[in-house]
Amino acid sequence: MTLIMATNFNSTATAPIGYADTAPANPLGFRVGGLGFLLPAQGNCEVLGALPVNPIPKTAPWFSGLLNRRGTIVPVIDLHRLFDSTAHPPQKRHLLAIGHGDKTLSLWIDDYPQPVADIDEAPASPFALPDSIAPFIRQTYIQGGQTWLELDFEAFFNALGGLSFCPEAGL
Question: Which of 26, 54, 87, 99 is 20 to 30 A from 77, comparing alpha carbons?
Fold first, then answer.
């Protein structure tokens, strides 16, 4: 099963790419462990069906491998492993592709993306964020006790691109 989501909310020319000046009216969000992430307002997102992920030797533990998405090779990232999460990921997780064409990256997520209603801006995250994502958080929101993070996915993905090989492997 493939679920394609169009996440097109109103945006202004002065806002960073993918996000509006204020919280979108009905954003979609997904969870990884205890962290909630809002999907980019202007972007392509797709929950992928059961596609095989091909592991690549001598890469970082959080780099699950590559998959073929309609002829495009897409890297797959396991955020649980990247964040050194002590929580065990759910046995049934989903792959979420974010981006378009050769600028697509896929993430393992805990459940299908859900609408996030009635979110309020928070001055900062109420807990310490993993070092690997803290520099890429644009805004923090609160909804019913759940923290939702607006992540600069493009900058985050670019930063991950330089970290995918294990230095101890000599690569």
Answer: 26
Are 43 and 18 in contact by the 8 Å Cβ rule? The answer is yes
With 0-12 / 13-18 / 19 or more C-beta atoms within 10 angstroms meaning exposed / middle / buried, residue 169 is exposed
3-166: CATH topology: OB fold (Dihydrolipoamide Acetyltransferase, E2P) (2.40.50)
Q: What integer pLDDT is reported at residue 20 of this predicted model?
A: 45
> What is the share, in percent, of the chain residues with pLDDT greater than 90?
30
Whose tokens are 């644009």? That residue is 138
Q: What is the pTM of this model?
A: 0.77
For Cα atoms 90, 159, 97, give the angle at the middle one, nearest 5 degrees: 45
* Pairwise CA distance, residues 72 & 78, whole Å: 19
CA 6 to chain centre: 16
- Residues 113 and 25: their CA atoms lie apart, in Å, by 16
